[in-house]
Amino acid sequence: MRILAGSLKGQKILIPKGIRVTRPLVRKVMFDILPDLTGCLFLDICAGSGSVGLEAISRGAQRVWFVEKNPRVARVLRSNIQRLEIGERVRVVIGDAVKVLKTLKSDFDIVHLDPPYRSRLLSTLLPEIARLNLLRTDGIVVVESSRRTTFSSAPFQVEKRRIIGETVLSFLSRS
Q: Which CDD domains does the record match to this protein (predicted)?
């Protein structure tokens, strides 16, 4: 897998075994919809290989926070960061997403949520992001989910939804 656009275009991303990755077409659709990322603060929750956050860095995000629960997967993510020489622009936090959110102090322009498709994390993470005021007033939450997954977007409202094969991208804003 490779980064699609920006300053790191074409750079290879290592993928840990046993995880579902955000396919290139899904990333393309996501970043085509998102506004210009120049200078933004980006939070990638359930980051996996980091393909989405790495794409954000390549497209101009000032800083990206990656949250990943699995230490083995986080090692591969750190390897990607080291290989791309972007360590000064990122932070990797290993731990349970809900607990990690409580430790973050920034307010983010974009929050990307990509929990395992069969988990129920969305019902916990969305209200927690709002409660902790982690999203800027004009910020965007992007939820990547399965077509078979239903979730309440509360306390956010759905602005756009795109279906790409089995994947649904939901773009949420503050209500």
A: AdoMet_MTases
Q: CB within 8 A of 120, min separation 6: which ones?
A: none
Q: Is residue 106 over pLDDT 90?
A: no
Could you please state the CATH topology (level 3) that the domain comprising 24-174 is classified under: Rossmann fold (3.40.50)
Per-residue pLDDT reduced to its tens digit, 114-146 = 998 888 899 999 999 999 999 999 999 999 999
Bridge partner residues of 140 (DSSP): 110
Q: Is 109 left (phi over 0), alpha (psi -120 to 50) or beta?
A: alpha
d(Cα 60, Cα 67) in Å, to the nearest integer? Answer: 20
* pLDDT 10s digits, 145-167: 999 988 999 999 999 999 999 99
**Residue of 66, 29, 71, 70 lying closest to 44 (CA atoms):** 66
Contact partners, residue 23, CB within 8 Å, separation at least 6: 164, 165, 167
Phi/psi class of residue 125: alpha, beta or left (left: φ > 0; alpha: ψ in -120 to 50)?
Answer: alpha
DSSP states of 64-91: EEEEES-HHHHHHHHHHHHHHT-GGGEE
